Fold this sequence. Notes:
single chain; YefM-like fold; 2 domains; 3-stranded mixed beta sheet; 61% helix; elongated
Amino acid sequence: MxxxxxxxxxxxxxxxxxxxxxxxxxxxxxxxxxxxxxxxxEYEQLAGYKTAQLKAQIQQGIADLEAGRIASGNVVxxxxxxxxx
Length: 85
C-alpha cells in the first residue's frame, strides 16, 4: 500500500482520488498512520462484510440462548476468578 504524508495528500488530492480507485492509500501525519483512503466500492464491500459478520454473531447468540448455552454474569466472573488463581 502506498503511504503519503498528510500535507502531500492535501496538495495532491486530485491524484489521490485517482490512486484510490485501484488500491487503498495510507495517510500519515507526523510520521504516524492516521487514515486509509479507499474507493467507495471497496468501502461498500468492507461495510457489507462487517454487517454480515455482525448478523452472524447475533444469530449465534440467539442460537446459544435458545439452546440454553448461557451463563449469568456472576457465574462468568467466578469462572474468570478461578482461571486467574
